[in-house]
Write a structure and sequence with these properties.
With 263 residues, the chain is mainly alpha-helical. It contains 12 helices and 3 strands, in the order αααββαβαααααααα. α7 runs antiparallel to α9.
Length: 263
């Protein structure tokens, strides 16, 4: 076989391959691959409803909780957090009367300078209390936003988390994660989750939740302002609003320069 024939064969093969890719994209991700859109959400709602068949005082078993949550976390990483696909993100459980999700990292790996491992922790009581499936997706998105931030840059930045002992820093830390989750499309689910959690925790803990995280009303205010001025999101990431008044008082994007020059 001469060189010109080889070239023609290779060229023909390349054309056929490109045509196949155009018809059947290898890496294309359909909406059904995203666990937080229908019909995936409907399937998860059915699972949560089935798990909720046990008495509210009876938590779903620890292995069952992890088995239900782990695939959802991994699907979310693929669909909405591609920066975490090479990170070690695991699911484990914890117990609490008023928290259902939280994020941690491996302290031993941190101090031994080994490859970091991050944990999304889930309260086994969650699935026996009929949580909204879009709310579960959204709050997992919130927790993965924390992991995305933790895993970015030098690990010594994690020492800064000691400031979480301060109430005000905790509020800014959690509301900033809410903003990042809203940026990634989780706003409706965050609203559903907040409405659900207010009804499923001790009454004396609700005020703290409303202080540290955006309420449904505040999320509506954020979305209303963002619809008019999408650039506000970047401003709010730098200047996290602590209440609805601060959301509505934020300057338009045309005035950002004036705000910075006065600080």
């Amino acid at each position: 076989m001469n060189k010109s024939h080889i070239k023609r064969t290779l060229l023909l093969g390349a054309v056929v391959a490109l045509a196949a890719l155009a018809t059947h994209p290898v890496a294309a991700q359909s909406a059904s691959d995203d666990p937080c859109v229908a019909p995936a959400l409907l399937e998860k709602q059915a699972v949560f409803a089935k798990e909720a068949g046990s008495p509210p005082s009876t938590p779903v078993s620890v292995p069952r909780t992890a088995a239900l949550t782990s695939p959802l976390v991994q699907q979310l990483i693929v669909a909405r957090f591609p920066e975490l696909t090479r990170k070690q993100v695991r699911v484990r459980t914890f117990n609490s009367d008023y928290d259902f999700f939280r994020t941690r990292f491996s302290y031993s790996r941190f101090f031994l300078f080994r490859r970091m491992r991050y944990f999304v922790e889930v309260n086994p009581r969650l699935l026996s209390l009929s949580p909204p499936s879009d709310g579960v997706c959204a709050i997992l998105g919130h927790e993965l936003t924390h992991i995305s931030s933790m895993s970015h840059g030098n690990r010594l930045r994690l020492f800064g988390l000691v400031r979480l002992a301060s109430g005000k820093y905790t509020t800014v830390f959690e509301r900033r994660a809410d903003l990042e989750a809203i940026r990634r499309g989780f706003a409706p689910g965050l609203k559903a989750y907040r409405q659900w959690i207010y009804a499923n925790i001790p009454a004396e803990k609700v005020a703290r939740k409303k202080r540290d995280y955006f309420t449904p009303e505040e999320i509506d205010a954020l979305l209303s302002r963002l619809k008019q001025d999408p650039a506000l999101m970047d401003f709010w990431i730098r200047h996290v609003p602590l209440n609805e008044q601060q959301i509505m008082a934020a300057p338009g994007s045309g005035n950002f320069g004036k705000r910075r020059s006065s600080e």
